[in-house]
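Hi X.,

You mentioned you wanted examples for the new student's onboarding notes, showing what a folding record looks like when two proteins sit in one file. Here is a clean example. The first protein comes first, with its sequence line followed by its structure tokens.
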Amino acid sequence: MRRILEFIMAGRPQAVGAILILTLLGAFIPFFWLLSGAIIALITLRMGFMQVLWVISWSAVLLSIVSLGLFGTSSRLGLVGTFAASAGFGLAQWLPVAVFAWPLRRWASWSFVMQAIGVAGMVAVLLVQVFNPDMTAVWQRFLDEALGGSMQRFGMDAAQARIAIDSIAPYFTGILATLIATGISFSLILGRYWQSVLYNPGGFAEEFTRWKASSAFSGLMLALSVAAIVLHQSLLMQMMLVGLVPFFFQSLGLAHALVKLYNMSTGWLVGLYVLLVFMTLQMAALLTAIGLVDGFMDIRRRLAKR
């Protein structure tokens, strides 16, 4: 892994090539999109925002050219529209990672960056609702076209598929924002880890296991969560989903910190991630709740004093 990272960081052409390959592979396995984002994070953290803008720009242009060669021109968008859509996809994927990696490079504060991701996600959900109050209908049409046929192939009849889509649509903006915020966070974490591997061995573990959200942000999210659950209001529920993303990652850092504090076997962490893979929703909810509690209690500090 180290040699691959050293090759990528040896020059702009290597970085652009790696990002392009991973992005194209992401069309088949979306996880590769997160890896391309991690390279963007690594370049930003090591070389700064202006350098990564050059890499992003050329990556977007080459992605459009290669996409046209591989997949052709969309009959609906035309040549220029297809080129712009491919470039826009790349920019939308990479720019947010660079934007949030820049303050991490400048201030090395995971607390600030993760809270900024949560706040940005909540603001985005709010703005979408303000400028298009009828997003539920938009998502109903989109999900019906994208998933309706697949649901029926998996054994649902038309009525069941309709019920499922109608139950998801009111919250889909928040779900999408949550997935994007999670992806950005993952790319930042992996990029920071790669930076530690190359230039600061052991530094990532030290900083990531120590950060926690502020009490003020924790209080805000607790109040929002209670209001969303009690009122069962769609907008509040969506803002809650994306706003709680930082606490999920905070709890992962807490888990690593506790394993280190008590000299526990890494098997505990392996078990945690295995459960997270096979019981994703349940474990994500549990870890997020633990992270929210940690925002108030600072569990690391309390246990370290014992």
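Then the second protein repeats the pattern, sequence line and then tokens:
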Amino acid sequence: MDAKGILYLIGTPIGNLADVTLRALETLRACDVIYCEDTRVSRRLLSHHGISKPTSSFHEYSDARVVERIRRDLEAGKKVGYVTDAGMPGVSDPGPQLVAMCMAEGLEVDVIPGPSALAAALAHLPVQPQRFTFMAFPGKKRAQLRKFAKEIAGMGHPAVVFVGPHDLAKLTDAAIETLPAETRVLFCREMTKLFQEVRFIGLGELKERAAKEVRGEITLIFVPPEAEPHTAGDAEPHVGLSNAADSLAKLGLSGRDRIRTLNSLFPGQKDAVRRAVYNTGAEPPGGEGD
């Protein structure tokens, strides 16, 4: 009996074509055929790296015949690659259909890790979350967006969201209607590209940004305020604030600079900020941050 093939799920750059791993390029060159979310996008990557391979489309609107064709390719012993327009397969794309088919048919699957907008956005976050929720795309209808915002409001920890530029304003309105006014948002647009934009802002500034013409891929991280505001008598600041204070202390910043930075990240929490800085070994100078 002839050996069966293998399906490779290959991570590709989220913007900068240089952000591709050596293993990904090696695997793409070894594939007999590469299925793509959009062949036009993938061919640019392949051409940039001097790779010439047969390509075929497989996207969310593909019917069952494409999955069957991929199954036949694998049964025939071919090495089959699958790539999305950007990042890792399996997130807001039909990659899981292929994994399910392979599991059902006893066919081998291998994942070639690569760039991820989710991981890149989390790396930009100035506070290390103990946990977070990834919520992908929220939908386009206002009712969907309001429901989405209510889910975020009930979490108590950061939520990572992918949103298209044309849906940003509607999602922002739903967030302002539903989330606490002190909620902070990490706004990431066109990550790794020439016009990358990353800001840690409040809901009001997000609304101002959404009112302008926005282009490109957007990742948002909604960071909730403290569940209960701390008063001067509270013993410990919020864990996110404490982690941020520790990180700034390790950078060697003065107590004064740490307070200024933390006050910008945690508005309305001056007492907690001062305690967090004091607890990391630098007593705040009198009156600083008021």
